[in-house]
Amino acid sequence: xxxxxxxxxxxxxxxxxxxxxxxxxxxxxxxxxxxxxxxxxxxxxxxxxxxxxxxxxxxxxxxxxxxxxxxxxxxxxxxxxxxxxxxxxxxxxxxxxxxxxxxxxxxxxxxxxxx
Length: 115
Fold this sequence. Notes:
Elements: E1 2-6, H1 11-22, E2 27-31, H2 39-49, H3 51-54, H4 60-63, H5 67-70, H6 75-84, E3 93-95, E4 100-102, H7 106-110
Parallel strand pairs: 1-2
Antiparallel strand pairs: 1-3, 3-4
Helix pairs in contact: 2-6
């Protein structure tokens, strides 16, 4: 089953959900603000995509952190930050079962096997 991870009020997540619906892609939505997210999953995303991709450093939540928390980041510290505040996870994360994709670009989604 294809799973889209994110938060429902995010504009990019809304666009991804609309694209999936309009293209007849069956999926489930995992709201990690309500349902939470576990360390194993975030670590797997970081292992596959890199912490630099999974950690949303452009968002207001990350930018509001003290400079000390943003300095000398590595995979472990990034995972800890994302678990403490899921708003720092890049949105959305699409899990096709075979691979994960961070963010939403219609052309990237169109090129996936979403059968």
